[in-house]
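Thread: "does anyone have the structure for this chain?"

Original post by V.I.:
We have the sequence but no experimental structure in hand. Need at least a predicted one for the grant figures.
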Amino acid sequence: MSLIVFDFDGTIADSVVIFIEATNHLAKEFGYLPLAPDQLPDLRRLSLQGMARQLGIPRWKLPFFLRRFRQELTGLLIDLKLIDGMHTALMAIHHQGYHLGIVTANSRQNVEHFLRQEQIRPLFEFIDGGQILAGKVRSLKKLAKLNPVNPKHLIYIGDEINDIKAAKQVGVTSIAVTWGFNDRTALATLAPDFLVDHPDQLLAAITQVHPPLGSPPSPSPPSWQGRKRDFS
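Reply from O.Q.:
Generated one for you, tokens below.
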């Protein structure tokens, strides 16, 4: 089964601006200073845990922070936009016969609302919401069992360090995108299978892993060892 699984925030939806707004709304409640615009480049090099430490949020408070964070995002959905070029990319991937899904830390309700608003909900067969790193690993493991012969045919596309970590932990293919939260340098240090800079490069990366339905198989498919690709 050729299953392509997307993260949502920063990958499909341009969430960076409302992420900063939601984070600042919670500053007083969780006892940290609001973020200034010039802090964003440094934060883009950190994982979620690293960002929480930078803000001064104790580890034990992180689940509570994430719950409140999702609530804040719900109120800001009206300002959420689709990543430029993503609609065309999703349609192209879907038309090639790939099955699409979403595994995200955002709530399913938020994602459903946004996809319907953008008129792209029918492209996705499922939405698994509310998943932070451990939850994403569990979800990807379940999905990988759909193709036990070659789990690398399951592709996880995300914009964060944690998305690459989850894909590697499960043993599925990772495509890291540079237009989201973590920057290109931070993503490259995790050595994803593919690193892309624009949505129109996604289909080319996907077809390297699993050719479209109906395409003739490669006569001598190369080993995945050392098959890292950079689509910059």
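V.I.: this helps a lot. The chain is about 40% helix and 15% strand.
O.Q.: and The CA atoms of residues 118 and 211 lie 28 Å apart.
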